[in-house]
Amino acid sequence: MFDNISVLTPKGHSRSNSGSRGHSRNNSGNCNFSASPRKTMAYNRQTSSVGSVNSLELPVSEDTLLKPRSRSISEADIEQYRCANRVRVFFFVILAIVSIAPLALHSLRVINNSRTSCGWNNDGAWVTGVAYGPNPYDLSYGTNAGVTCANVKDVPAGFVTDTFIVPSADESEKWLMFFEVRNYDSGHGDIGMAWSPDQGAHWVYESIVVNETYHTSYPFVLRHSVDPKVTNSLVMIPETSAINEVRAYVSSTDTPTEWTYFETLISGRAYSDASVLEYNGVWYMWAYVASENDVHLFYSDSLLEGTWTEHPMSPLGAAQVHSDFRRPAGRPLVLRGDKHAHKQDKVIRYVKEGAQRLVGYGAAVWALEVTELNTTHYGERIQRRISPVGGNGWVSKRVGNVDAHEISPGLWVAGISGDHTGDYPVTRYFISTVVLLLGAGVLLALTYTVADITKRVGATRRHLHRFAMEKVYTHPTILSILTICLGMAVLWQFDFLLDCRPPVNVVNFTGIGPHCDLPEYGDVASCEGYRKLVEKQSIVAAIAGLDADVIVADSTVVDSTANDVAHKAEAVVQNNEHAQEGGEGDALLECEVTLVTALFDLGRYSHKAENMEEKFKARSFEKYQAWFVDILKLNSCLVIYIEEESEALVWEHRNKNNTVVHVIQNITEGYENLSAIKKVLNDESYTSQVVRPGRPEMKFAAYGVTMFKKIDFVKESVVANPFRSEYFFWLDGGYGHGRRMPDFGTEVWPDPKKVREYVSPYQVFILQADQPDSHNCADLRATFMNHKTAMAGGFFGGKAQPLLDFHTSFHRQLDKTLEMGIMDDDQAVFFASWCEQHSLFQMEQCPPNVMCQITGTKRCFDRWNCAVSFFSEGDVHAHHIPLINWIEM
């Protein structure tokens, strides 16, 4: 069967052999390595047929050379060699798939997230924040961003940028921040607003305030008198290049969410980023035309009433403005000179670096000094670069704009747009992915080549290779073990991916205070005044904290002197220490965080309920008691509302110095909205049309009462404040249904440090179940009937005042919806409160797991309960729950 087979001999002669050993070719495709001992060989195949192999050269070992003859090579030997190669290639393919799969999955994740809030986009991850310093050049960025896309809930936001702030000299007046919000629904930019009650230390997102049918951005806002009868007037000049106009809108600090179009200042070109300045009695405007990379200069004797005339040197050419530094990037300002030192005033304007470049756009902001500015001449020179800081911070890659304000001599605060991703992140990602794939292919090819070479080295190596081919590559048991190990490794990795990550919407950041705490700024005159301001605010806050113990029902604070407040607070604390029955001698602890929870046997109220969903029937009271024990084991201060029959269970696991128990025998007794709830449930025209009519809240009133009384229990705990806490959180008695509450041991949960870090002092912290849609606010009936859930009611909380405000809003919306003849669960009423006031809530989203993101599934099972990971001590995975715990048997 072989035309020519040559075997090398010690003397260099060759011996030919022809014929066949009589083995038939194995056409079944299976590799049979037990037919004969396998010889390592190399052959040159000249045709595709095995029987037509013209030459086969066999390298032989010393053992073979000592033998007088060498056996001939059969078709079966060659077929075994080919089959071994096929197996080897198969495993190389498996290795390639395992290597490339994460890249492919992440690519799908990018595509899937490209139109969701904070999803991937090709513009970067812009956020807004604040910087501070002794002058408008040397600025130190706040530790964290002030507002991110995650804060924006009324529209799906890709990023926020173009930051402008309106500080106030009045300590009681809120600071305002305006910025562009990239709206994924409309595909263009809107103008959003946030406010700060503490001089820029914290920012609370309010809402979209300018929403046109075209793109708007760069909300240049300034205080300017429009009408002598209107005080605190504001003027906004946003970018409206989409309609070839520069428009002015007006509002006031009293109603900063309401803006009205006033007039068009200039038109005729697609002017971007118009920035104005009054200097020597004349108003000047710089406006950029992107298509020409030109900056145009205009002047007028009035901001709103006068006519804007283009400067004779406009557009400013290369002699006046460098081509890389033309596009405005912030508020122009005048640095007043010291006349006694014969120093002249300086005009400073900020520009984007590389505005005309495709790559590198907005890498930094440059401060330019305008050396000559009048109605006939213009000149400027480069002054200072304001750069990103590197690393992983919110302004680590790019700086978009700077809006600097002198708060007091030697103390400047600036609104900043920062990016921590860089320009064209998706493009760069896919390019890097292609490079990695090519690299993986080259590596696989090299691996195959090296393997093909090394198998010829030494008899021992050949025997090991033969053993691997015979026993490992094809043995079904070994293959099964390898497959199981690989599967377990993948599941283990995905198990961690299913767990939660820290919130992306962290609102706590440094602000301007630490500037005065730095040693090098200790002699700045303004710092002494600032420290006095902080000290004064701390005293006021302390008094307000004591007043929280004597808050009356309408959420107003009792007017009292400091001594009266102190005496009343002391009396409240003393009463709380002895309020618990049998608790004399067990003084209550002081805890920074109080948890409020409850457990009621609702089965006694549901015996008449028919056609209730099976999954609720399966959740017996015994199951809830078992889940409740996980709550009782927490090393935290608890306020518990419970029935008398379950009180013994509490004291089996709790101490009297960290627990307050309120016994309520009948949850529905005396509830003011009970009759209204029953009326809705008896309305078959409504209950028959709701989604999932078998839900317990649609079957018996006690379930609804229990849900709606959560906020009442929280208010009672805030007012009483038995543990003199600063933060209060509601936690469902069956939180996580036994799957997400680990044994924390002696660790305090929620960790007070994490609470201070993550929770806004001016909002109610709550988990976001789904992206809230502000369009649903217009039709609450449809929203309630469709059981659309935006917020998770199992865990929420914050400081006293936001919770009291929430209580008021909740009952206002509950009364309103019951009067409309509609009802859903407590989370639906939460959404109605959000519709009433977006800024009341700090909504954090549990990051969905990777598989959910790839498939586009919104209902990921960790979206309700990731507060466990958010507020645990140490690393987020310190109390990781194994995947098997998620499987309900």
Query: How large is the count of helical segments?
Result: 21
Please state the overall shape, judged from the principal axes of the Cα atoms: globular
CATH class of the largest domain: Alpha Beta
What name does CATH use for the topology of the largest domain? Spore Coat Polysaccharide Biosynthesis Protein SpsA, Chain A
The stretches of 5 or more residues where confidence is low (pLDDT under 50) are: 1-29, 33-70, 492-527, 536-585, 850-861, 880-889
- The total strand number stands at 31
Number of domains: 3
Note the main sheet.
Answer: 7 strands, mixed
Q: Give the proportion of residues in helices.
A: 25-40%
Give the overall average pLDDT.
76
- Name the quaternary structure: single chain
Question: In terms of structural class, how would the helical and strand content be classed?
Answer: alpha+beta
Order of strands in the sheet with most strands = 27-26-25-28-30-29-31
| Named CATH architecture of the largest domain | Alpha-Beta Complex
User: N- to C-terminal separation?
Assistant: 64 Å
- Percent strand equals 15-25%
Radius of gyration: 36 Å
Protein name: Glucosamine inositolphosphorylceramide transferase 1 N-terminal domain-containing protein
Transmembrane segments: 89-108, 429-451, 472-494
Domain Glucosamine inositolphosphorylceramide transferase 1 N-terminal: 120-419
Biased composition (Low complexity): 15-30
